[in-house]
Amino acid sequence: MPHGRVAVSQITFRDSAPEERAAIHELAARAFGRPDEADLAIDLIAGPAETLSIVAERDGKIVGHVLFSRLDGPDKSLALAPLAVDPAFREMYVGTELVRHGIARARQAGWKSVFVLGEPDYYCRFGFRSELADPAIVEWQGPCLLALELEKGALSGWSGPLVYPDPFRKL
Ligand SMILES: CC(C)(COP(=O)(O)OP(=O)(O)OC[C@H]1O[C@@H](n2cnc3c(N)ncnc32)[C@H](O)[C@@H]1OP(=O)(O)O)[C@@H](O)C(=O)NCCC(=O)NCCS
Questions:
Q1: Domain CATH number, residue 151
Q2: Looking at the domain assignment, is residue 171 inside a domain?
Q3: Which of 7, 99, 136, 169 could be joined to 162 by an S-S link, Cβ 3.0–4.6 Å?
């Protein structure tokens, strides 16, 4: 049934539950139009690296998802990926609120920085900057590798390898 435009205040943002993996996979595959990022999300959630998994829910249905997973590199650092919003719920700030909610949860839990490989125009609204990510040694280094400090100065003076959890190698 068509739902029309929904105010973001009518959407709930919360940690995902273990039994929601199939729904998250289905949502991410639909959002990306292929299964690769959905597989990545599920492999990361099931894997040994610590994760933060946040869903957007509307009327009992998952309409968005964002995942954060632990990186080896700077102290207490996370990778943000993937971020997926149901095509029927785009341009309603669901993606923005998922990222905001995730960042708040990560800060609350004591994480100190977040890296993302993404569109700078989208991620700069949260404070992500490419200069902060420049010292990272990683194969996808470039202008779309961005970083955000959750604790002031968390990345200052840091440089070195940035190692993503294994499932990223399959992408
Ligand atoms: C990218 C994606 C998550 C955005 O979700 P969304 O909920 O539609 O985005 P929002 O409503 O929060 O967008 C907020 C603003 O960013 C803009 N925006 C949306 N997608 C953008 C993009 N890819 N690049 C730059 N700006 C973008 C919107 O136009 C809006 O601008 P405004 O503030 O001027 O109105 C969604 O389009 C999606 O799931 N895409 C497929 C998967 C993907 O590419 N994920 C990201 C890479 S991991």
A1: 3.40.630.30
A2: no
A3: 136
> Does any domain span residue 170?
no
40, 68, 85, best to mutate for ligand 1 pocket (most atoms within 8 Å of CB): 85
pLDDT in tens, 117-162: 999 999 999 999 999 999 999 999 999 999 999 999 999 999 999 9
Ligand 1: nearest atom to the Cα of 94: 7
In a domain, 2, yes or no: no
Any ligand 1 atom below 6 A from CB of 118? yes
- Residue range(s) defining the domain that contains residue 158: 8-165
- Count of the separate structural domains present in the chain: 1
Q: Kindly report the protein residue whose alpha carbon is nearest to atom 24 of ligand 1.
A: 122
Q: How far is the CA of 85 from the centre of ligand 1 (A)?
A: 8
Backbone angles phi, psi at 69, to 5 degrees: -135, 150
Using alpha carbons, list the distances in angstroms from residue 11 to 22, 58, 76, 92, 103.
20, 5, 30, 10, 18
